[in-house]
């Protein structure tokens, strides 16, 4: 869990001096932006279009529509009907997929660099010309229902995560699962999807990201040819729910017969890269690493090694979001250790940190480790494209992305502690307990 | 308007005009250790993948899970470094080293910065040759493995797979879980681990792939220093393992809204002359694209599942042909019937020329996409050697795919697909199964 989030955050950093990726950008007359990341190691390209719309932009009662629409975008257009899009990608030896998040929806193909032209033609076509047949939207809604069962309803820890997020946000739509609440997903219609599509899928709301063995001048010319001819549409004012002040700490507890390893988790509402004051987000990335970023860090050292009371432990900060970030600490108690004992130990560690601060050595180690991760992250073209896309879509600039490493290096122990004092406030937190029937009995016996 | 954000020595990035195939070098160290190398200077790092044939194979009777546990222990102390000391050293070098043990192989992956290459290889050397297997760490990692096992017992996917293999390979190494059983893992002693490790991590079983910012002249001596003092090792038993003739449907009752279905029967080995033909056939049937027959029938037309697939599973000593689907409890029988019917249709009627052409276009075109990161290429290079394929295999692979005819696929479909032999394990609470 932590790895994923940490990777998202760290990979934002550009390269060590030796191999700075060449990143260029342009803007089309209709308001669509384009970003090109050159990677000439192999004659392949990653072509992505990101829309600045995600589950947090859904109308109440219609949760899951952003994701359902993402599925429906593979149905076709007049020009490429009935799944022709995917057939053409496959016939050209390409791989494709799409993803939906709280803040964005993205579509991509990974293909031989000389097929970029064709991919752009098709992707541009489905920005405004989606056709949903009368008989394929119900089956696709069933598919989404099965996806929800696979990802969430069948998985106790995922159901717990869903409840946890819902408890963390009092009013903001980040509390809603991206895939949507079951009853609402089952009631979505073709009309709902088309309405959402018409509202949000437009050049001004889209960012093109092309990474690979390409010439930026040619990419811009192709983008003009295909995306540039799409008529500019003004987007309606769209306001998300505003999170009210948090005055009371919350606790949730879930028991499920299919939980074998109990879990303690505490999440704090935190600033995101967009809402943070200068230095805060970088302070939180470092704080998460110092606390729980690996086997040499505080939580693992104390809980899983010295005290030998946890099977696993860690911390992460997820800040790549438009409106709010989250800071999370978690641990799985071992053997006879109770959940109360593990929570007490984590609390003790957090208090100790707030009282005594972090050492220069800890800070230096964490910086070094984050920066090495960043160099390794350059190894995957798709991952790099995805990280740029996510950061740009939530509102960061290329300069913000490329300056990340410098900002992390410049972060002081005082910055880390300021961020810690601001965020580690129980009033803004949810404490979650997930356990099986056995742990339930054990806690009761204490 | 086009904005130039960063323009750093663009000349250095002159496109590599040749594809991967022309670039694999066979490096033989002065001491005779072989590695396959692709030089790639774009990023100041080197990815290394080492495969030791063995894995759960080498677990002695009653010591199931020994190989898996050793994989978790190597980083918990080596040479004069304890668990923490090893982790700190790795961090000082910004090196990433990981160990894993599967059914057939014990694998080691390393990523190192060019600037710390010698020291990183030396750390790998110490880890491989001087793991301490300290009792306290054994107990700690064992607890982690046991906790993972408890979770596996309530995870529908692992529950299904464990049962499938248990019934398909009764009494043999493939019938036992890779991680072992709670009883066998609890009983493992330090001596068991040392002995298992010694048999497994040996020169004669080792295949190495290296990709990145390093040349053959630098790599050669590093191979000797790192792997030179590993034991030679004894030959591994690679005799075929018999499959049982179990078939039909086995239900594991579980209170979950969606049933997980795993199904399959005997397939073919990687070395089989029909392997590439079977690979093309599987792509058409249920391989990884949005156009396979199973995807079309089960997902697109009927909305029965989010994921439905088939795959060839060529283990060292037995080949399998497998499939899977996850569907609501109310639609389990409907899904299985549909998959079985597709199984029979392909065996009886074969494929169309159009399907074959499309599959070839995809498989040949997408082949290059596999080589998009140093780490992936390193794994591929080690895998090629482990499968006894030649160093020019990448050159010839697309030709092999293009040479496949409709007659080939139809013949191999008949040879492999046996709908009546399917052994199906369902985990869930299906309401429409009558067995």
What can you see in these coordinates?
The complex is a heterodimer of chains A (446) and B (435). Chain A is α+β, with helices and mostly antiparallel strands and 446 residues long. Chain A has helices spanning 2-10, 65-72, 84-91, 116-128, 137-153, 156-168, 182-186, 190-200, 216-226, 280-292, 298-306, 339-356, 360-377, 381-394, 398-402, 404-410, 413-423, 437-445, and strands spanning 23-27, 33-38, 44-51, 95-100, 105-112, 206-212, 250-255, 263-270, 310-318, 325-333, 429-435. Chain A has two domains: 30-226, 2-Layer Sandwich (Cytochrome Bc1 Complex, Chain A, domain 1), CATH 3.30.830.10; 250-445, Metalloenzyme, LuxS/M16 peptidase-like (Cytochrome Bc1 Complex, Chain A, domain 1), CATH 3.30.830.10. Chain A contains 18 helices and eleven strands. In chain A, the strands form two sheets. Chain A has a six-stranded mixed sheet, sandwiched between helices. Chain A has a five-stranded mixed sheet with strand order 7-11-8-10-9, sandwiched between helices. In chain A, strand 4 (95-100) and strand 5 (105-112) form a beta hairpin. The radius of gyration of chain A is 23 Å and the shape is globular. Mean pLDDT of chain A is 92; it is low at 1-18. Chain B has 15 helices and 14 strands. Chain B has helices at residues 66-73, 83-92, 117-129, 135-152, 156-168, 182-187, 190-200, 216-227, 275-286, 293-301, 332-349, 353-366, 374-386, 393-402, 406-416, and strands at residues 2-4, 25-28, 34-39, 45-53, 77-78, 81-82, 96-101, 105-113, 206-212, 248-253, 258-266, 308-314, 319-328, 423-428. In chain B, the strands form three sheets. A six-stranded mixed sheet of chain B has the order 2-3-9-4-8-7. Chain B has a five-stranded mixed sheet with strand order 10-14-11-13-12, sandwiched between helices. In chain B, strand 5 and strand 6 form a beta hairpin. Chain B is globular and about 60 Å long. The N and C termini of chain B lie far apart (67 Å). The relative contact order of chain B is 0.15. Strand 1 (23-27) of chain A pairs antiparallel with strand 1 of chain B.
């Amino acid at each position: 869990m932590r790895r994923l989030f940490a990777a998202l955050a760290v990979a934002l950093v550009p390269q060590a001096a030796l191999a700075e990726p060449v990143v260029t950008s342009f803007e089309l007359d209709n308001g669509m932006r384009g970003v090109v990341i050159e990677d000439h190691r192999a004659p392949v390209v990653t072509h992505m279009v990101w829309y600045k719309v995600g589950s947090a932009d859904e109308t109440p009662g219609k949760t899951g529509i952003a994701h359902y629409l993402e599925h429906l975008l593979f149905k076709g257009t007049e020009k490429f009907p009935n799944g022709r899009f995917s057939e053409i990608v496959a016939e050209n030896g390409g791989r494709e997929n799409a993803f939906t998040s709280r803040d964005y929806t993205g579509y991509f193909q990974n293909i031989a660099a000389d097929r970029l032209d064709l991919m752009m033609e098709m992707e541009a076509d489905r920005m405004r010309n989606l056709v949903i047949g009368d008989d394929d939207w119900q089956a696709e809604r069933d598919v989404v229902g099965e996806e929800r069962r696979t990802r969430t309803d069948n998985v106790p820890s995922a159901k717990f995560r869903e409840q946890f997020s819902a408890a963390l946000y009092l009013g903001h739509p980040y509390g809603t699962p991206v895939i949507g609440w079951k009853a609402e997903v089952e009631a979505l219609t073709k009309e709902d999807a088309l309405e959402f599509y018409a509202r949000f899928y437009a050049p001004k709301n889209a960012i093109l990201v092309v990474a690979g063995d390409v010439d930026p001048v040619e990419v811009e010319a192709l983008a003009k040819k295909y995306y540039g001819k799409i008529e500019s549409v003004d987007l309606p004012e769209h306001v998300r729910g505003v999170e009210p002040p948090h005055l009371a700490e919350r606790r949730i507890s879930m028991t499920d017969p299919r939980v074998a390893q109990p879990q303690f988790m505490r999440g704090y509402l935190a600033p995101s890269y967009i809402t943070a004051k200068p230095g805060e987000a970088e302070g939180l990335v470092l704080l998460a690493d110092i606390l729980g970023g690996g086997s040499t860090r505080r939580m693992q050292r104390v809980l899983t090694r010295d005290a030998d009371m946890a099977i696993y432990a860690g911390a992460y900060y997820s800040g790549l979001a438009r409106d709010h970030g989250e800071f999370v600490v978690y641990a799985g108690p071992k053997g006879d250790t109770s959940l109360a004992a593990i929570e007490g130990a984590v609390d003790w560690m957090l208090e100790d940190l707030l009282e005594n601060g972090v050492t220069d050595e800890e800070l230096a180690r964490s910086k070094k480790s984050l920066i090495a991760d960043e160099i390794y992250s350059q190894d995957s073209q798709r991952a790099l494209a995805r990280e740029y896309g996510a950061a740009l879509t939530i509102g960061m600039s290329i300069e913000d992305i490329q300056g990340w490493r410098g900002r992390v290096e410049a972060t002081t122990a005082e910055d880390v502690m300021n961020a810690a004092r601001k965020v580690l406030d129980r009033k803004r937190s949810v404490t979650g307990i997930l356990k099986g029937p056995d742990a339930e009995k054990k806690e009761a016996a204490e | 308007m086009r904005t130039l954000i960063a323009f750093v020595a663009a000349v250095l990035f002159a496109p590599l005009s040749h594809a991967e195939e022309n670039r694999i070098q066979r490096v033989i160290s002065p001491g005779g250790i072989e590695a396959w190398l692709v030089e790639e200077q774009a990023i100041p790092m080197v990815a290394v993948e080492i495969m030791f044939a063995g894995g759960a194979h080498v677990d002695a009777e009653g010591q199931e899970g020994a190989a898996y546990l050793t994989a978790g222990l190597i980083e918990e102390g080596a040479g004069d470094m304890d668990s923490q000391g090893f982790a700190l050293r790795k961090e000082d070098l910004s090196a990433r080293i990981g160990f894993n043990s599967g059914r057939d192989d014990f694998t080691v992956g390393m990523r190192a910065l060019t600037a710390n290459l010698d020291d990183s290889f030396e750390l790998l050397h110490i880890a491989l040759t001087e793991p301490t297997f300290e009792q306290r760490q054994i107990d700690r990692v064992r607890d982690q493995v046991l906790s993972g096992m408890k979770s596996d017992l309530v995870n529908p996917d692992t529950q299904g797979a464990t049962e499938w293999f248990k019934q398909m390979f009764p009494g043999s190494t493939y019938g036992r879980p890779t991680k072992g059983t709670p009883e066998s893992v609890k009983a493992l002693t330090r001596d068991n681990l040392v002995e298992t490790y010694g048999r497994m991590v040996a020169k004669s079983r080792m295949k190495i792939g290296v990709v990145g910012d390093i040349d053959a002249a630098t790599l050669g001596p590093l191979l000797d220093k790192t792997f030179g003092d590993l034991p030679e090792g004894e030959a591994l038993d690679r005799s075929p393992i018999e499959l049982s003739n179990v078939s039909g449907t086995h239900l594991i009752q579980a209170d979950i809204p969606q049933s997980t279905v795993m199904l399959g029967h005997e397939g073919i080995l990687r070395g089989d002359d029909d392997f590439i033909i079977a690979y093309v056939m599987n792509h058409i049937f249920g391989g990884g694209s949005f156009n396979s027959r199973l995807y079309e029938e089960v997902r697109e037309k009927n909305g029965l599942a989010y994921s439905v697939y088939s795959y060839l599973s060529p283990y060292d000593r037995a080949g399998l042909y497998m499939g899977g689907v996850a569907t609501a409890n109310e639609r389990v029988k409907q899904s299985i019937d549909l998959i079985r019917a597709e199984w029979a249709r392909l065996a009886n009627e074969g494929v169309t020329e159009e399907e074959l052409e499309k599959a070839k276009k995809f498989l040949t075109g997408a082949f290059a996409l596999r080589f998009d990161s140093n780490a992936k290429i390193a794994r591929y290079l080690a895998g090629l050697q482990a499968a006894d394929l030649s160093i020019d295999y990448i050159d010839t692979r697309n030709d092999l795919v293009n040479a496949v005819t409709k007659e080939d696929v139809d013949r191999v479909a008949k040879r492999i697909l046996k709908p009546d032999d399917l052994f199906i394990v369902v985990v869930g609470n299906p309401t429409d199964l009558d067995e």
